Here is the input.
Amino acid sequence: MSRRRIDVGEVRLAVTEAGDPGGEPVILLHGFPETAHSWRHQLPALAEAGFHAVAPDLRGYGGSDRPAAVDDYAAAKLVGDVAGLIRALGHERAHVVGHDWGGGLAWGLAGTMPALVRSLTILNAPVGPVSARLRREDPAQRAKSWYMLLFQFPGVAETWLSADDFANLRQFVFDDAAPGTFPPEDREVVVEALRADGALTAALNWYRANMPPASWLREPPDPPEVTVPTMIIWGEADSNMGTELLERSAATVTGPLRVERLPGVSHWVQQEVPGRVNELLLDFLRGLPRG
Here is the structure.
């Protein structure tokens, strides 16, 4: 695997890539509070299968540019970064894989710029408007989303997550997964990246720009339909996302759809059961019509 920084338009993204650059591109988008390291198990598997696997540190994370303003993390800009990355790599379209916030960007890209998306794979990530609507309608999902409101408070959220060597963040992320999912060295990769100046605030700005408190009072827009071939992989033991999010998000897909539900698996699906995720991902990609 190699690392480099790529100009995608407004910002430069640090990317980790593996495989033949002439292979079909697969873009892997991480979520909160991670980096491209989230895909450490998938990158070599995709490369061995002949794909060009590219995992960016998304805007504000890791080695990528970290704009200061909250508005710099609005969804349209984040989706634009992914579109810019595909083009900067010299491709007209790519397979797009996303987890958590990265899955939200992947849904957004497929819904608004489908010509760029050869296929879509989602891991435990709802369509944005679907999530917003369910938070309004369902008390159970609203309770699961408590942290989204906490994250709105500048300074307070940063302190709560980082105090005592990131004790609350460690519990929120690492202790929520099955034992062994995050070995000590991988935990430190996540925490060390967030220790960098401004990094934790940048990660929280994703929530502040796109889920401000007033948005909880507004009727969400209807989500765009997704016409590209789509696979959803969903760990059903997700502490923060109920399976209703899976079902409502799947209903937005009007193109070919495959749903793989993984009982007993947490939100951190590609790290908790990497072998199973790799098997499903490669089977899906290989089964797509050529072209």
Summary: Residues 2-286 form a domain with the Rossmann fold fold (CATH 3.40.50.1820). The mean pLDDT is 96. The beta strands are 2-7, 12-18, 25-29, 52-56, 94-99, 117-123, 230-235, 257-262.
